[in-house]
């Protein structure tokens, strides 16, 4: 018997363009981006880092509800999103609010999502569904959305984001397999931040890379340095082009790290991560690396960055104020949103009771 899994990971060597010192190590893969586009990428990463810091503080003050920190994952989240078009459809996970914001979701709505308000789940005019909490559920949905796009002859892709934990779910295999079978224009984006809450990726799977899981579905798979915004952008751009050309879906695995806790609901990462591991990953920071690259090209300054930070703080302040000003949601509103018609007797009774209470 020939052994087929031996050394398979060698085919999925990590794709990188910028090393940890911000030096270009893969000139031929360098994406065609203008100076303005490069600066815009950095602006989005700086803005998102501030948004993360402010969201954590607001959560601690009790002004936000559910929040999953993003610092460390900016290159994976924003580099990939930068390769997409407005008409592409996003199916994010709970940590992927930044991509939704850059896809057009107003900031105050992102805050309302965090507060559990239904308005924060209404994606009017944004080609996306609200962030999925059920691990892996968005992956099969993505196959469906992508197939729909193909049947309608649209030149667009459906992109889903999940984590290493999501790649350990059954839905992950079903979704990729289905999309592969129909050559649907989908991108399955896995941010491998090494942990599913406290469970290390090594304990989730015997596969040495997540990218190689594409093999069984007969689709392309690539492992990318998730702290290198240019590599993530280039890999996503390539996947998008192939999908639109009818060449089928791609699985993109980014190697990344989440500096903060899993969510703000009491997770203590010191129980499952070492200080050495944290500092090893901080050396790879996506903002530090890209800042060096831009500075060497004369495209970045401290002054410019401070301006972005101040502007972000102002916008965040205004957005949280707007979210706070949203009328409190009513139970009956939630029921009306679920049922246009056909509430059963039991629900109708509850509806009437709440309607009565709310009118007082
Ligand atoms: C089907 C399902 N099982 C379990 C959970 C509980 N849960 C919430 S987040 C999480 C870990 C997910 O890890 P990963 O996919 O790596 O994403 P990350 O949080 O690291 O970004 C789990 C198990 C859930 N939400 N849904
Ligand atoms: Mg994870």
Automatic annotation (TrEMBL):
Keywords: Oxidoreductase, Pyruvate, Thiamine pyrophosphate. It catalyses: N(6)-[(R)-lipoyl]-L-lysyl-[protein] + pyruvate + H(+) = N(6)-[(R)-S(8)-acetyldihydrolipoyl]-L-lysyl-[protein] + CO2. Pfam families: E1_dh (PF00676). GO terms for molecular function: pyruvate dehydrogenase (acetyl-transferring) activity. One of its GO terms (biological process) is branched-chain amino acid catabolic process. Its cofactor is thiamine diphosphate. Its EC number is 1.2.4.1. Residues 42-331 form the Dehydrogenase E1 component domain. It is an enzyme of class 1 (oxidoreductase). The pyruvate dehydrogenase complex catalyzes the overall conversion of pyruvate to acetyl-CoA and CO(2). It contains multiple copies of three enzymatic components: pyruvate dehydrogenase (E1), dihydrolipoamide acetyltransferase (E2) and lipoamide dehydrogenase (E3). Heterodimer of an alpha and a beta chain. This is Pyruvate dehydrogenase E1 component subunit alpha. It comes from Pontibacillus halophilus JSM 076056 = DSM 19796.
């Amino acid at each position: 018997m020939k052994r087929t899994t031996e050394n398979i990971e060698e085919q999925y060597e990590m794709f990188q363009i910028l090393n940890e010192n911000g030096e270009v190590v893969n000139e031929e893969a360098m994406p065609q981006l203008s100076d303005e586009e490069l600066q815009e990428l950095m602006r989005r990463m700086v803005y998102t880092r501030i948004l993360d810091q402010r969201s954590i503080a607001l959560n601690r003050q009790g002004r936000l509800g559910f929040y999953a920190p993003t610092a460390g994952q900016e290159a994976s989240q924003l580099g990939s999103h930068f390769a997409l078009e407005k008409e592409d459809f996003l199916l994010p996970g709970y940590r992927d609010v930044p991509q939704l914001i850059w896809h057009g979701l107003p900031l105050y709505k992102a805050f309302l999502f965090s507060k559990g308000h239904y308005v924060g789940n209404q994606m009017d005019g944004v080609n996306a569904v609200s962030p999925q909490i059920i691990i892996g559920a968005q992956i099969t949905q993505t196959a469906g959305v992508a197939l729909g796009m193909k049947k309608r002859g649209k030149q667009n892709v459906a992109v889903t984001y999940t984590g290493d934990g999501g790649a350990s779910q059954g839905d992950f295999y079903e979704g990729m397999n289905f999309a592969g079978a129909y050559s649907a224009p989908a991108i399955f984006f896995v941010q491998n931040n090494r942990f599913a809450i406290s469970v290390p990726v090594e304990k989730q799977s015997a596969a040495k890379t997540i990218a190689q899981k594409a093999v069984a579905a007969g689709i392309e798979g690539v492992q990318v340095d998730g702290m290198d915004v240019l590599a993530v952008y280039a890999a996503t751009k390539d996947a998008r082009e192939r999908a639109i050309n009818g060449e089928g879906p791609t699985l993109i695995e980014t190697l990344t790290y989440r500096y903060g806790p899993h969510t703000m609901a009491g997770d203590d990462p010191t129980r499952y991560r070492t200080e050495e591991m944290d500092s090893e990953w901080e050396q790879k920071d996506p903002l530090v690396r890209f800042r060096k690259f831009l500075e060497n090209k004369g495209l970045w300054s401290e002054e410019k960055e401070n301006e972005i930070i101040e502007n972000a703080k102002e916008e965040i302040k205004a957005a949280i104020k707007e979210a706070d000003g949203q009328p409190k949601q009513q139970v009956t509103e939630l029921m009306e949103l679920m049922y246009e018609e056909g509430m059963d007797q039991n629900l109708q009774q509850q509806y009437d009771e709440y309607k009565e209470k709310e009118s007082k």
